[in-house]
Design a protein that fits this description.
heterodimer; A: mainly alpha; B: alpha/beta; Rossmann fold; four-stranded antiparallel β-sheet; 26% strand
Chain lengths: 334, 267
């Protein structure tokens, strides 16, 4: 199953680097790649467009998709509920707010918008908003967050951070204002090899660490008490999983903005084809997330070409019907 | 030997169990009885170290269990609860395999696979192996979970060396495992528990509601009422008209039977 998914991911990647505002033929792509080797002639303009825009964007797509997919799987495993995703508990909007704030303040105070400071700002925003959701969703009696409280609180906190982003957008001048608009809708157009580098660290490290906890997350499926009896330190597990989730999602969001519903749909699709074992789900959701986001990005680039749509619009347009379908099936308990 | 000394457990101001001291010998089946709110489940959870008491200690073979690591404890202590729900579709075999999770790192080894095969045969759930746990009936689920906790405590005789020269005692706790089971499955379940309790290094402590099942299967009965220890001893010692009347508020009469020491009917 994982092998089939890997093949699929590579196929979609190939399509993604070929088609867009300009189509590149296989021959052009190989010439562009060859031009990287020493002793070859300088790349032409077309080749540079491919090497510096198209290719890093395609890789970024894989990484961000993988982050969102893994984040969704981790959240669903942790809450034992198939309708949570990183965006729903406030992580994404908080991270987007953190980046927007950083961007605007950077513009106002002329702080250099260093590429490394941006993900840090996004992480802080993501941690704050996620923490806020959990704090507010917790019941006063037993300190537990029920799913319905979590979803409703997440909704409210999301709205709060989105309006804060709107406010920043209102007071910001171009070009910041325009960047923020794109952020709150999600876009991959700003990808460069530098951003790929940063996101690849969090995505790959986060996924590998998460895989180590797959067995413990499986044990959690039969309940927190039962997992404890099976030797799992449940509180520690919760903290580790939430931290991984916040970091991978916030770093991805820092560079691409809020992309909803990928984290929701990916684990669900995987469960339908291969069961709910987290060892398979975590690895699979990295691949499936990468594939789906790359497809969505391809769609965003092709539908109105040579212009492009914000990718968040594409994922929401597809994701909302799926989400409503899941809600109506009611295979779970609130 | 499992020893609880002066256990008191509170939630807020409410004392759920008060100053309970009791011990449980290996090789025996111990059943805790008492009316609703007696603190039976709380005591089980304290003994299994899910809950940590405000006062008192629980010791497994003289070692304070409060200091044990979760992962280490799970190798020789298992708990069977009532009505376990699985959040996502999972095969029956994977649920049983969870019992081996404390014993392997990344992937199950051949020993783990063999043990799972063995317990699944023992509990007659092999035919469900590839089925989704969520589609099973209550009785089938309980058999699967019993197989799971036995897989957790299973000791391979051929592999005795690996368990150390002085293998540790194993503890199995049953938290109202008979709820939702019909009478045939209740009896079947208790017989299997009884058989497992005969292993000299296994101590089983369970909560049951049916006094007749307790009378028939237990080596030791512990009677609790309103969070306090009332009596402990053999069924004949504990199930007396006076103690039952005081604890449960019903009037028992005793009927002689062939296979069990006593049989109770209630007015």
């Amino acid at each position: 199953m994982l092998i089939a998914l890997t093949v699929l991911t590579l196929l979609v990647l190939a399509a993604s680097i070929r088609f867009g505002a300009i189509d590149f033929s296989v021959a052009q792509i190989s010439r562009a790649l060859v031009s990287l080797f020493p002793g070859q002639p300088e790349p032409t303009l077309d080749q540079r467009i491919f090497l510096e825009l198209r290719f890093p964007r395609a890789i970024m797509c894989l990484l961000v998709g993988a982050s969102l997919g893994v984040g969704g799987t981790l959240m669903q495993a942790l809450f034992r509920n198939p309708i949570v995703e990183p965006g729903l508990v406030g992580t994404s909007s908080g991270a987007a707010f953190g980046s927007a704030l950083f961007f605007v303040l950077g513009g106002v105070f002329h702080i250099g918008t260093s590429l490394f400071a941006l993900p840090v700002a996004a992480c802080i925003g993501g941690v704050l908003s996620t923490y806020l959701v959990f704090l507010l969703a917790r019941s006063r009696e037993d300190g537990r967050a029920s799913i319905v409280m979590l979803l409703l609180t997440g909704l409210a906190v999301n709205a709060l951070f989105m309006s804060a982003i709107g406010f920043l957008q209102y007071i910001a001048r171009d070009p910041q204002a325009r960047s923020i608009t794109f952020w709150s809708l999600g876009t991959l157009s700003g990808s460069s090899w530098k951003t790929v580098e940063i996101v690849s660290i969090s995505t790959i490290a986060g996924t590998l660490i998460a895989l180590r906890y797959a067995k413990q997350l499986n044990a959690l499926m039969i309940g927190e008490e039962e997992a404890t009896y099976l030797g799992v330190n449940v509180n520690r597990l919760k903290w580790i999983i939430l931290s991984i989730n916040v970091v991978i999602v916030a770093v991805a969001t820092a560079f691409t903005g809020v992309i909803s519903f990928v984290g929701l749909i990916v684990p669900h699709l995987l469960r339908m084809i291969g069961g709910a074992d987290n060892r398979y789900l975590i690895a699979g959701s990295a691949l499936m997330g990468a594939t789906l986001l790359t497809l969505a990005d391809l769609l965003a680039r092709l539908v109105v070409r040579p212009a492009e749509l914000p990718i968040g619009i594409v994922t929401s347009a597809v994701g909302v019907p799926v989400f409503i379908f899941l809600l109506r099936r009611r295979q779970y308990v609130f | 030997m499992l020893t609880a000394t002066n256990i008191t457990f509170r939630i807020g101001q409410k004392e759920l169990i008060s100053d309970i001291s009791v011990s449980f010998a290996p090789g025996k089946l111990h059943l805790i009885i008492g009316p609703n709110g007696a603190g039976k489940s709380t005591l089980i959870k304290v003994l299994a170290r899910l809950l940590r008491p405000q006062n008192g200690t629980v010791e497994y073979e003289g070692a304070d269990v409060g200091e044990a690591r979760e992962a280490d404890l799970a190798k020789h202590r298992a708990v069977l609860s009532q009505a376990i729900e699985v959040a996502f579709p999972l095969t029956v075999r994977e649920v049983v395999m969870m019992g081996r999770y404390p014993h392997f790192g990344g992937r199950p080894g051949p020993l783990d696979e063999n043990i799972v095969d063995e317990v699944m045969t023992h509990f007659d759930v092999t035919e469900f192996s590839a089925r989704d746990y969520q589609t099973l009936s209550g009785g089938e689920r309980q058999r699967v979970n019993f197989a799971r906790v036995l897989a957790q405590l299973w000791r391979d005789d051929a592999n005795q060396e690996a368990n150390g020269p002085r293998a540790r005692c194993r503890y199995l706790f049953l938290d109202e495992p008979l709820t939702f089971l019909d009478i045939r499955h209740q009896l079947d379940f208790m017989k299997k528990v009884r058989a497992f309790a005969n292993a000299p290094d296994v101590a089983i402590v369970g909560v049951v509601h049916d006094l007749n099942l307790a009378a028939r299967f237990a080596d030791q009965i512990v009677l609790l009422n309103r969070g306090r220890f009332i009596a402990a001893g053999t069924p004949v010692e504990v199930l007396t008209a006076g103690l039952i009347r005081d604890a449960f508020g019903v009037e028992p009469s005793f009927v002689p039977t062939q296979h069990a020491g006593l049989h109770l009917i209630f007015e």
